[in-house]
Amino acid sequence: MPFSKEEITLEVKEENSFLEWEFETKARDIDFSLVFRGESPEDLEFVVLIPKQRIDTSDEPEKGCFKCEKSGNFNLFLSVELVLSGTPNIITLQLITIARLHHTTPCNIVRYSLCWVVY
Q1: How would you class 62 by CB atoms within 10 Å of its CB: exposed for 0-12, middle for 13-18, buried for 19 or more?
Q2: CB of 101 within 8 A of CB of 17?
Q3: Which residue, among 78, 80, 85, has the nearest Cα to 10 in the 3D structure?
């Protein structure tokens, strides 16, 4: 089966910020993982923070939070299995990420909308 994959890079500028996310799709499961890559030359390799996991979001959105103890680039990896059926099937994915310094005060909200049309 083919997959559609997305990588979203979020730059966290201050240590101890929080990343929050929310995503869903009504028709498919989503593979999700979170990795870190710092800003210095010795941080060239990715560090897996949340290993790849398959999530069923057909009943309710997936929500999560991660405390970023370091500044740097955090990458969200998302993939959706595309089932070929011969008729159009629209898969939508809404992703909201929030980077905040304190758990109660948002400082940077990023919204992503992804849409796949599969035949």
Answers
A1: middle
A2: yes
A3: 78
Helix (H, G, I), strand (E, B) or coil at 41: helix
Q: What is this structure's pTM?
A: 0.71
Alpha helices (H) along 20-114? none
- How many other C-beta atoms lie within 10 A of the C-beta of residue 21? 22
Cβ–Cβ < 8 Å for 73, 10: yes
Q: How many Å apart are CA 86 and CA 65, to the nearest integer?
A: 38
DSSP string, the chain: --EEEEEEEEEE-STTEEEEEEEE-SSSEEEEEEEEE-SSGGG-S-EEEEEEEEEE-SSS-EEEEEEESS-EEEEEEEEEE----SS-EEEEEEEEEEEESBTTB--EEEEEEEEEEE-
Give the pLDDT confidence of 5-63 residue by residue, as tens digits. Answer: 778 888 887 888 888 777 776 666 788 899 998 776 666 778 999 999 988 877 787 88
C-beta separation of 105 from 49 below 8 A? no
